[in-house]
Design a protein that fits this description.
heterodimer; A: 422 residues; mainly alpha; Amino acid/polyamine transporter I; globular; B: 58 residues; 2 helices; 0% strand; flat
Chain lengths: 422, 58
């Protein structure tokens, strides 16, 4: 075979793989990018403002953490054809099932409130009143979901994922010093030593990387998309690319606030956007748009995670491929979750700080349970067959899960008792 | 009233359907679930303690 024939053959092979990936891509990308929700953007903005580029190395470590946890949901969903809630009910019985489902409902609803807080704060920078933002978001999300096709929903969600990349041009616009980023950010270091404040921020970064709703969402999404065992390889690649993108976005946010707001007290991303506007109007506007988009993406996925879980357990039709008439309760639960969460930020004097605290604490009760169930399910050889965890996968995933459980517990407990670790 | 009855009968049906765990209850699984129960119990105790101290301050 001559050189050109070999080249043509290889190109065709690669092109076929790319086309296959484009068909299967979706759940991993969406869940990972939606992971950078309103709370996540605030955490990254605060990280950059407080410690400059110094914690970029730590964010890079979160790529394998996010990947190893989420890829297990791909295998579980593709093999069992069941969502995470149903898998827990079936494998561990009604007690653990109800515990997970009710906990998920509470965590999702509270997180959804924080997404609306982020979205209303972001658009208020452009003069949009909060009530109008809530109405527009509920309408927009209902239209996206009611189109009756998973494929369309996924492509629209991927469009919003693209908008999340707005932090990349923002980072280039602030002209950061590449040598400073490399010198300060890529060499592991703990600026000022392991203080209570730094420890809390590191835990917050981990907490935003792995959230309970992500496990439920991705597994249900894999099932709704109809991925099969043969698609697992591409599903894992999708998740891997998603985990790289999500951490990259986080790093670009850190670069933006680390360059322009280093040393400024940042409590939320909206404050960061307002401060950035004083220095560079466009960068501030990009930050605000990104915050709104992050809240919207988070809201899209979180509300669906709950509706899918309820549908699985109550036996309702629960697919985005169904019309409202065919799956009324699926869409009703989606709308009620969304609308009730959207109303909360509009209530004068609503305890939003308390809600944020509650999200952290309640998530700590659900995350360890969901992660332990995930590993146990992946070790059920009778169900998983050749896709069960190997010894190496067990060592890696168990190490990651134990570390996440310890750190997220400390994060949750320190939210309850702020002076405990001082 | 009828809707409430239907709801509770649905809950009973779900409880019945998932009354027996399907996963093989090996020693590892039993140990993990026991640790999880203790962990959650301690967390609930902490939350109740926090709630009581906050109420006392108020």
């Amino acid at each position: 075979m001559d050189f050109f024939s070999v080249l043509y053959y290889r190109f065709k092979k690669v092109w076929k793989a790319v086309r296959l990936y484009l068909v299967i891509a979706g759940p991993g990308l969406v869940v990972m990018i939606a992971d950078n929700d309103a709370g996540g953007i605030t955490t990254y903005a605060a990280t950059g403002a407080k410690y400059g580029y110094h914690l970029i190395w730590f964010l890079l470590l979160l790529i394998p953490v996010a990947f190893y946890v989420q890829e297990m949901t791909v295998r579980l969903g593709a093999v069992t054809k069941r969502g995470h809630a149903e898998a827990i009910f079936e494998s561990f019985g009604a007690f653990w099932g109800w515990f997970s489902l009710l906990d998920l409902m509470i965590v999702d609803w509270l997180t959804l409130v924080t997404e609306f807080v982020g979205m209303t704060a972001a658009l208020s920078i452009f003069g949009v009143p909060a009530w109008l933002t809530v109405i527009l978001v509920v309408l927009l999300m209902s239209i996206i979901v009611l189109n009756g096709r998973y494929w369309t929903w996924e492509k629209i969600a991927l469009g919003f994922c693209l908008l999340n990349l707005i932090y990349i041009p923002a980072a280039f616009m602030v002209n950061p010093s590449l040598s400073d980023i490399a010198a300060q950010g890529l060499i592991p270091n703990l600026p000022g030593g392991l203080t209570n404040e730094l420890f809390f921020l590191l835990m917050a970064n981990i907490g935003t990387t792995i959230a309970p709703w992500m496990l439920f969402f991705q597994q249900s999404s894999v099932v709704d998309k109809g991925l099969q065992e043969k698609d697992i390889k591409m599903g894992k690649l999708d998740t891997f690319i998603g985990s790289i993108i999500t951490v990259s976005i986080a790093i670009f946010i850190v670069i933006v606030t680390g360059t322009l707001l280093h040393g400024a007290p940042i409590d939320d991303a909206a404050t960061a956007a307002k401060l950035l506007m004083k220095t560079n109007h466009y960068v501030g506007a990009f930050m605000a748009i990104g915050l709104f988009d992050a809240g919207l993406l988070g809201a899209i996925c979180i509300s669906l995670a709950s509706s899918w879980a309820f549908g699985e357990i109550f036996g309702w039709a629960h697919s985005l491929n169904t019309k409202v008439k065919e799956a009324p309760w699926f869409y009703v639960s989606f709308f009620i979750t969304l609308a009730t969460a959207g109303v909360v930020p509009l209530i004068p004097g609503a305890p939003l700080v308390l809600i944020t605290l509650f999200v952290q604490v309640v998530a700590v009760t659900l995350l360890p349970a969901a992660l332990v169930f995930l590993i146990l399910l992946l070790n059920d050889k009778k169900t998983m067959g050749e896709y069960a965890n190997t010894r190496l996968q067990n060592i890696v995933s168990t190490t990651i899960v134990v570390a996440i459980i310890i750190l997220s517990t400390m994060y949750g407990v320190s939210a309850l008792f702020p002076n405990l670790f001082q | 009233m009828r809707t409430i009855n239907q709801f509770f009968s649905k809950i009973r049906e779900i409880n019945q359907r998932y009354s027996k765990p399907k996963v093989e209850m090996s020693r590892g699984v039993k140990f993990s679930l026991a640790v999880l129960r203790i962990y959650l119990f301690l967390l609930v105790v902490l939350m109740i303690y926090k709630f009581i101290t906050v109420m006392n301050v108020l």
